[in-house]
């Protein structure tokens, strides 16, 4: 009966504090890992955003140059453009008075031509 109780050995001295130290170390390591993970993913997101922005730019979704807009005004007027491209031209026209004037002039010209044809 009592022999069973004696077979159980108490933890050696220092074992628990060693374990605690090891756990604390692990926790510090994981904190560092988390910081690196979040920092890394944040910069990754930033990188993807930049790459995406550049890609969208080449697709004609971001800022257009006045020259590009003006060369496509006729197609834009005729609704002959890709929806995305047409949208970005519209966006440009809404904020660029110079191109807006050109577009309005072209439109007026068309209207007056139609009037003359009547
Ligand atoms: Zn413009």
Average residue-wise pLDDT = 80
Strand content: under 5%
Ligand species = zinc ion
> How many beta strands in the DSSP annotation?
0
The 3D shape can be described as rod-shaped
Low-confidence stretches: none
Radius of gyration: 35 Å
| Quaternary form | single chain
Question: Biggest β-sheet: count, sense, barrel?
Answer: none
Number of helices, counting only DSSP H or I runs of 4 residues or more: 6
Give helix and strand order, one letter per element, not per position: HHHHHH
Tell me the helix content.
Answer: over 70%
- The termini sit apart by 118 Å
Number of domains: 2
State the secondary-structure class.
Answer: mainly alpha
Features:
118 residues, single chain, mainly alpha, binds zinc ion
List the helices and strands and how they pair.
Elements: H1 2-7, H2 15-58, H3 66-71, H4 73-77, H5 83-95, H6 97-117
Helix pairs in contact: 5-6
The protein binds zinc ion.
């Amino acid at each position: 009966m009592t022999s069973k109780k004696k077979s159980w050995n108490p933890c050696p001295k220092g074992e628990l504090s060693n374990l605690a130290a090891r756990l604390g170390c692990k926790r510090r390591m994981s904190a560092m890992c988390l910081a690196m993970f979040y920092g890394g993913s944040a910069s990754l997101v930033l990188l993807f955003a930049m790459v995406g922005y550049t890609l969208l730019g080449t697709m004609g979704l971001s800022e257009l140059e006045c020259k590009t807009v003006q060369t496509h005004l006729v197609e834009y007027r005729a609704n002959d453009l890709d929806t995305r491209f047409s949208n970005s031209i519209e966006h440009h026209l809404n904020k660029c008075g110079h191109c807006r004037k050109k577009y309005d002039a072209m439109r007026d010209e068309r209207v007056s031509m139609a009037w003359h044809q009547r």
